[in-house]
Write a structure and sequence with these properties.
The complex is a heterodimer.
Chain A: H1 2-10, H2 45-54, H3 97-102, E1 115-121, E2 128-132, E3 138-143, H4 151-165, E4 173-178, E5 183-185, E6 190-192, E7 198-200, H5 203-211, E8 221-227, E9 232-233, H6 257-260, H7 262-269, E10 279-286, E11 289-296, H8 322-330, H9 370-373, H10 377-388, H11 392-400, H12 407-428, E12 435-441, E13 444-449, E14 457-464, E15 471-474, E16 480-487, E17 494-500, E18 503-510
Parallel strand pairs in A: 1-5
Antiparallel strand pairs in A: 1-2, 2-3, 3-8, 4-8, 6-7, 9-10, 10-11, 12-13, 14-15, 14-16, 16-17, 17-18
Chain B: H1 3-21, H2 26-38, H3 48-58, H4 61-67, E1 72-76, E2 86-96, E3 101-110, E4 115-126, E5 131-147, E6 160-178, E7 181-196, E8 203-204, H5 205-208, E9 222-233, E10 245-257, E11 265-278, E12 283-295, E13 309-310, E14 324-325, E15 328-341, E16 344-356, E17 368-379, E18 382-392, E19 395-401
Parallel strand pairs in B: 6-8
Antiparallel strand pairs in B: 1-2, 2-3, 3-4, 4-5, 5-6, 6-7, 7-9, 9-10, 10-11, 11-12, 12-15, 13-14, 15-16, 16-17, 17-18, 18-19
Chain lengths: 511, 420
């Protein structure tokens, strides 16, 4: 019997899955399953705040032992696959300045001379309303605060285009200027007053909302018109767990590279309001299939804007943390946090934004985000390489979509983003070997050093057994090969490249 | 086949079965994960706690409580220091005449049975918002206000108490001809009455002090009063928690005794506030100097309950409320505030001040002092609660208040009344 069992286990190599399959690396997620029933559920922002701030939601990195890498959400090259969450864009295929400015689309601003108000928002951070244009397209109209004309609308426009170029699904945001006469009230529109009571909306309510927002000298109002995304809204995705009603949502969100890496993008763009309720799920139909697409929404609180006012100088720090609070309490505030030392140029249309004190390693959103907290150096590198792919001209092109009338303000914002970009590259290109875009040229493995600073890289070749994962030293590439890249100047940092018949099929990084 | 043989055979077959089902591609791996997920799909509803929190917010209970039902709501606090926790109904409308008229009426009762009734109507947006006109009437019945005697050297053991009842009606016209500068005038009538205090732990004032020591303790005057005021206010957040700028107020009021003709007086209030921001307004040094100076004609006196007072939750915080009173007062406050976390500021402060009988004694000699620390809870740039602990040579005091320490007071003759 013992012999039988021994033979049994020795005869079981077929239990082990190969490291690479014939279709690796996948560029796109497989065709999504049809989503039959899905719940349009609303989240509680209070719960999201308290659960993340004081609870432990999602699966966090273990305190000891190997970390949980974001492997399940990426292909074998470590890249998120094009699909419901993410699409490879600027870094992978350079977008022209026009494409960057176009973002998710620029062909559908609100049409016609008359816009019909179908609902209004009087509560919340900023006032606004929903309109139907003459083509019956729906737009959400959002304004700047009186104290900071152009600020929130510029941030909404610029933020959407940056996040689009970085690969996310975002709505089409247009900066519009309109006269109050363009607005007409739809039939039976209700409004909730400041006391929470619903009543029929009147044209005076629109006038009242407009008294609370800036008006230009020609009598027009500047606003963001955010086009309603296609499909049926089904509530925002969280930054942890999966949707229980979505068969395609199989990877816990806190382990998705595109959400872990979002930390770096958010730090760059000052998106401290990156919380669940600013995400958006839409049930869309494509090629006869219904599936959920995941969007990022509402960029009015990016850059130097906090939507209804200029950013707080503590943007980039948690609302609350035990350690910082205790330190501030017992030192009487005489040991100020690093962000309190920042100096800001005064531009009302920018708000509070700077790049000198900014530290991407210290930046955090308003409260803990499990996906951000789980990020590892390879997640950060994945994001940093995309940020660094934004040239000065690219940044200027996207900033121009904010239509800031003060050129000094626009130039200052560009400079801030350049400084912040460079700090991101410096921080995250130091944690892993900053090599990418691997390719074989004339039998030699070549790559781009994104930091242009590592001069002592060397390659060791191995034959690679795809079934067992075993490697044996080799003189050069073979049918199945592995190349290990190291650099004496970067101890502990390695890259394993896997090559099948002259095609790079896999990449692993260590640090 | 024996059980053992069946087991062994099954085990042998297992790997081949697994091989047959093992995915042949990455796509198949992902599809299998989707299969597994599809087998256990369920509605993605939120949990019970989240559902309740969501519904609580959606129902707007807080907003409804604040705004009320058809203008009717509950008013909390805003009672004189030492009066206990106060609550009562308030009718508040700011949507009358298309938003041109704000009206308010309230009745409050405190845990110490203090009563306060107010009615107010304001036209805040006359002349394109540059002029406002306000009418306010109030009746107050405070059962046991503290009184230690008039003069700077009254011992704390001399604590007595008295009842204050007064009724007033005032009109206030204010204009803002230049941004940040407000000028105004007020006109009103005040009926006063005092009586024995309700707090049996302490002597009632009339049993300890004679009318010579406590003017008007036996007969109370009624007043026709009028005044003028000016304000220059460039604080960054006048309605809430200021972190930079300044606020300078001066007002002068005349009180004409209409009943006894011996208690007429004139009163000048000056208050200077300065806020010095540090480190992007995450730390603030808040400074305040204020004085109240009064004068009377020869042989006239100021009723003890209308004399300037010192001590309490806003100045000399290490002393009991109403600890000092005399014909004049001055108070200095320096407060260093720093952000502990978003929503909570710490504060350390030093207060100094004195009351004095003659205006010539307005100087920095013989100041009483107190120091202390505190916390300010803030939401949306407004302090909604503060806790201060003040220390002085008379001990310590703990204050929990639902306002800012540099409270913006009403303008006009209503400030001639000693307690708020």
């Amino acid at each position: 019997m013992k012999h039988h069992l021994m033979i049994l286990f020795l005869a079981c190599p077929t239990f082990a899955q190969p490291k690479f399959y014939p279709d690796d690396p996948l560029e796109r997620e497989p065709t999504p399953r049809n989503v039959e029933k899905v719940l349009n559920r609303k989240l509680s922002d209070y719960y999201d705040l308290f659960a993340n701030q004081f609870g432990k939601v999602g699966q966090h990195q273990p305190e000891k032992g190997p970390p949980i890498v974001a492997r399940a959400s990426v292909n074998t090259l470590g890249e998120p696959m094009d699909g419901a969450w993410y699409v490879k864009r600027h870094y992978y295929r350079r977008m022209s300045a026009e494409e960057l400015k176009r973002g998710p689309g620029d062909a559908n601003p609100p049409a016609g001379a008359k816009w019909t108000v179908v609902s209004a928002k009087t509560e919340g951070i900023t006032p606004g309303f929903t309109i139907l244009d003459e083509k019956k397209q729906r737009y959400f109209i959002k304004f700047d605060p009186l104290t900071n004309p152009e600020m929130a609308t510029a941030a909404d426009s610029i933020g959407a285009r940056f996040f689009y170029a970085l690969g996310y699904h975002v709505p089409e945001n247009y900066i519009v200027h309109f006269l109050p006469e363009q607005l007409e009230l739809g039939p039976d529109v209700e409004i909730t007053d400041s006391g929470g009571k619903k009543r029929k909306m009147t044209i005076n309510d629109i006038g009242e909302i407009l008294t609370r927002v800036p008006k230009s000298s020609d009598g027009r109002y500047r606003a963001t018109a955010s086009r309603a995304v296609a499909g049926k809204p089904v509530g925002p995705p969280r930054f942890y767990g999966t949707r229980k009603d979505d068969p395609n949502d199989t990877v816990p969100h806190e382990h998705r590279r595109d959400l872990r890496g979002l930390h770096v993008f958010s730090a760059w763009l000052g998106h401290d309001d990156s919380r669940a309720i600013n995400n958006f799920d839409s049930l869309v139909t494509e090629n006869g299939r219904q599936f959920i697409r995941h969007y990022l929404l509402d960029f009015g609180s990016t850059l130097g804007s906090a939507s209804d006012k200029a950013n707080s100088p503590r943007s980039g720090a948690y609302f609350f943390s035990w350690k910082s609070s205790a330190q501030q309490l017992f030192t009487l505030g005489l040991v100020p946090p690093y962000w309190a030392l920042a100096k800001y140029e005064k531009h009302p249309s920018i708000g509070l934004m700077e790049g000198d004190v900014f530290d991407p390693e210290k930046w955090v959103p308003e409260y803990p985000n499990p996906a951000f907290q789980n990020r590892l150096p390879d997640d950060e590198f994945w994001a940093a390489k995309q940020v660094m792919a934004m040239t000065d001209d690219d940044i200027a092109a996207v900033v121009s979509t904010g239509k800031l009338t003060d050129p000094k303000a626009a130039a200052y914002l560009v400079q801030c983003l350049i400084k912040r970009r460079d700090k991101i590259g410096k921080a995250y290109f130091a944690k892993v070997l900053p090599f990418d875009r691997f390719r074989l040229e004339n039998g030699a493995l070549v790559w781009d050093d994104l930091s242009r600073s590592v001069k002592d890289a060397r390659v060791r070749w191995f034959e690679f057994n795809n079934d067992t994962g075993a490697r044996t030293p080799a003189a050069g590439p073979s049918a199945w090969a592995a190349a290990e890249i190291t650099a004496a100047s970067r101890p502990g940092q390695t890259i394993q490249i896997y090559i099948r018949s002259g095609t790079i099929v896999g990449l692993d990084r260590t640090w | 086949m024996s059980k053992m043989n069946r087991l062994v055979t099954s085990l042998f077959l297992l790997p081949f079965t697994v091989t047959a089902q093992a995915p042949a591609s990455r796509t198949e791996v992902i599809e299998k994960e989707r299969d597994a997920k599809s087998a256990k799909l369920e509605p993605d509803e939120v949990n019970e706690i989240e559902r309740r929190l969501r519904n609580f917010k959606d129902a707007k209970y807080l907003e409804r409580t604040a705004v009320g039902y058809n203008g009717l709501r509950i008013k909390f606090g805003n009672m004189v220091t030492g009066g206990g926790f106060a609550a009562g109904p308030e009718y508040y409308r700011q949507d009358l005449m298309g938003g041109q008229l704000v009206a308010r009426a309230s009745a409050q009762l405190s845990t110490k049975l203090y009563q306060k009734y107010e009615a107010q109507a304001v036209l805040p947006r006359l002349a394109n918002g540059k002029v406002s006109l306000e009418g306010i009437a109030s009746h107050r019945n405070y059962a046991s206000l503290q009184y230690y005697g008039t003069g700077p050297d009254r011992p704390k053991e001399l604590r007595t108490n008295y009842r204050l009842e007064d009724t007033s009606i005032d009109g206030i016209l204010a204009a803002e001809p230049i941004r940040r500068i407000k000028l105004g005038a007020s006109l009103g009538y005040l009926w006063t009455n005092v009586g024995p205090g309700d707090d049996s732990r302490f002597a009632s004032a009339e049993t300890v002090f004679t009318p010579a020591q406590a003017p008007a303790i036996n007969h109370q005057p009624n007043y026709f009063r009028h005044g003028v005021f000016a304000q220059y206010d460039y604080r960054d957040n006048p309605a809430g928690m200021a972190k930079s700028g300044g606020n300078y107020i001066m007002q002068y009021s005349w009180f004409h005794d209409q009943k006894l003709n011996v208690f007429s007086f004139r009163r000048m209030d000056i208050e200077l506030q300065q806020f010095i921001p540090l480190l992007n307004k995450t730390r603030v040094i808040a400074l305040r100097a204020k004085t109240t100076l009064t004068e009377t004609d020869r042989n006239e006196q100021i009723p003890f309950y209308l004399q300037p007072i010192m001590g309490g939750s806003e100045d000399l915080r290490g002393y009991r409320p109403f600890r000092f009173s005399d014909r004049n007062s001055m108070a200095l406050t320096a407060e260093y505030r720093w952000e502990i976390f978003s929503g909570l500021d710490g504060a350390v402060f030093a207060d100094a001040g004195k009351v004095f009988p003659r205006r010539g004694m307005l100087n920095f000699r013989d100041l009483e002092s107190s120091v202390g620390f505190g916390f300010r809870m803030n939401a949306r740039n407004t302090t909604f609660m503060r806790l201060d602990v003040g220390f002085s040579h008379e001990g310590f005091q703990v204050w929990m208040k639902f306002n800012d320490v540099f409270l913006s007071r009403r303008f006009g003759t209503t400030t001639g009344q000693p307690v708020y």
